[in-house]
Every structure is written in structure tokens, then in C-alpha cells.
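Worked example

This section walks through a single chain of length 453. The input is the sequence exactly as stored; nothing has been trimmed or padded.
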Amino acid sequence: MQPALLWFRRNLRISDNAALNAAVESGRPLIPLYIEDSQDRGGASRWWLHHSLSSLDRDLRQLGSSLLIRSGEPEQVLAELSAQTGAGALYYARRYEPESRRQEEEIGASLAGRLEIEAFDDGYLHPPETVLTQTGTPYRVFTPFWRAASGRGEPGLPVPAPQSIEAPERLPDSVPIDELGLLAVTAERARGYEETWAPGEAGGLQRVDDIESILSDYATLRDRPDVDATSRLSPHLHFGEVSVRQVWHAARQLEMTSQTATGGEALRRQLYWRDFSSYMLFHFPSLPDKPLRAEFEHFPWSTDEARLRAWQCGLTGYPIVDAGMRQLRETGWMHNRVRMIAASFLVKDLFIPWQLGAEWFLDTLVDADLANNSAGWQWVAGCGTDAAPYFRIFNPTLQGKKFDPNGRYIRRWVPEVAESSYPAPIVDHGEARQIALDAYQQIKGIRTSNLAP
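Given that input, the structure is written out below as C-alpha cells.
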């Protein structure tokens, strides 16, 4: 029987992997493949990818196979491999970024006559085409989207990993993982990542198992950066080392068997937020670059590079902002509440375009996800789909007191906060807030009823 190409993308796992399971069930010898392309761009996430691919290769070898790695345009790589190996089929999981959709269209157009192509919706709770308003248009606000999506019923139960994978008699040569150049971060940053994370499916499944330890207080403590009260599953979900179904059902099972109902519901709601971000990127592909509210293209942004650099380095003089930015630099991750505070400060206190903040996060986050990152920055900037847009301006001092009441998080990341060496605030928040509101009033007259295409 002709072999099949099993193209791993953002599903770097062997359990509950729809494409892998279907490929195994076909009875074909399989050629597991990862194609490194231009979408793998952030320094922190590329560090994670290196270790995730290494982990996947080890897991595949335990099943009697191994991971073939290539670089280049997927359509060209797949065409070359199908000719080289005589493959008769291609299995993969869909992605929803504009570049990924372009790749899939090219593959369908050029290879459909040469390969049986099976694509699977495997990265989210619901495919983005399936959740629409009664008039057939996409939702633009989360809550009605969440009601409609959750009303479609529970996701399917997770499926165990196969016991073995049949390999062809001979596999093509693979590019060694070390030659992909994924480990480009500094040695200092790499040490911080290594001390914080365990990339790979085993590390992700351990995080899923650990959900029980945080779920009972998750609804009340998840906004507290001084408490270890979040799942930290975001990078594992981003790379597909665990499936969203595994997380959803783990939370649901704990709800049914212990006193964690409120926390379980809150965690599952966060999974729908993740769906909503991908949904928005699917329906509004300009999300990473253009404000969805077109009037914000006329906002009087600043290009003060010194202020941008101070924000990036955690030297703004606002402790909660600086703590978050330093946590990001050292660990490749920042608590979600602090992400919002730090992002609001950049956009509404420093008046620096949200796109520059989004670009920095994409480079420094191990969970750098184009959809989540773009939707989050537009939400904070007030130019996205949120019902209460620009006039939400976080006061960083009050936010620090509210969510880090004992100062433990700040002291952890900004130990010099009480010393004379700590910098004075680079802007006065009260003055900056008024300037931001005045600027918003200036562009209100340009308001359009339609979101940007």
C-alpha cells in the first residue's frame, strides 16, 4: 500500500490527534512530517518549538516511527516528498491564520490530483465557519459568540494515542532539528525558559493533571499574579501538545466529581475566548495589522523609541508594569491580568501603536499566538470588537494594589522597587489619561459602523 504523509502543524502530540488517528486507521505506512516555515518567527516560541519537536520525535520513535523535518513552502515540500516516496495520501490538521489558509489552498489546488487529502478541524472547540449569527454573519462580541458556540454541545471525548505506527521500509533524510536555527535566544533567556517550562506532550499532560490543584479557586484567584492560580497551559495549547478537548473534559470531569464547579466553568470559558480569537482572525484576516474600528487608523500615535524601550525593559517607573515586562523577558510568559495592564500602559499612557506592542509580545512570549495576541491587543487598545472600547484605561497603580495587594509579585520581579535606584515614572498617568481621552474624542467623529475588512 502506498504510504501517507502525516503533516504535523500545531498538533505536536500523539494522543487525541485526529489526523494521526485517521492516518493510522487507513492502514497505510506513515511518514510523519514537520515543515518549518516563515510563520515560526518569534524567538521565544522558536525556542519552545525546538524542544517540542524533539519531544514529538522521541514519542514517535517509541511507536516505531520518527519525525521527518523539512524547511520551505509546504506546497513545494509536500510535492517533492510525494514524488520521492510514492505517497498516495496526505493527512493534516487545519490552521486558521491567513498564511496557513493560503498554504492549504495552494496544496488543494496543486496536489489534489496526486494525493488523497484529508484535513481535520482539530485545534479548537468549534470550526470558525460553524458559529454564525442567524443572518449568517460572524459574531463580533464575545458573549453572544460564547452562548452560540457553547450551545452547540460538548466537544468529543479525547482519543488515546495509537499503540504503534507502521513506517515505510525507508524514510527520506531529515533535516536535523539543531540545523533549523530555532535556539537563537540568548543563553540567559534560555536558562530562564528552561527553569520555568517543560515543552512537549508529557509536560502539557502534566499541566492538565495539575488543573485540579488550581480549579477550586480559579474563578476568584486567576487575576492574581502573586498567586500560582492559573493553568499555564497556553504554550502547550498553542503548539497542540495537548488538545483543547483534553483540557475541556478534564475541567468538566473535575466539576462533576469535586467542589470546583465555578472554577471549571471559568476555565472552560477561557477556552472559548481562545476559540473566539481564532474565529476573529479567520473572519477578519487583517486583525494583526489594522484596527477593526477603522477610525482608529487616524489616532495620533507617538513614535517615542526611548519610551518603547523603557517599556520593553521594565523601566517605566510603574512597578506592576515593570514586573510583568521583566517576568516576560525572563520566563517567556506573563500573567494575563498583567498583560492587559502592561498593554494598556503602552497604548494609553505612552500612546505607542498597539501593533508595536503586539510585535514585541510575538517575539518574547513562548505562547506567542497570532490570533490571541492580535485580538488581545486590539481589545486593550479599544479598536477591536469590545463593547466598551477606548475609555477603559487601566490605572497601573490601582491595578497593582488590587491584584497584587501584598506586593509579592512586584517584589519578585522588581526587587529594587523600594530603593533609590528604581526609576521615577516616565509619564504622569493622570495627565496621560486625559490626553488619551481627548485624542479619542477627536477621532469619534470618524467612527464607522462597519468593522474594517
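What to look for: Strands lie at 4-8, 30-36, 68-71, 89-93, 116-120.
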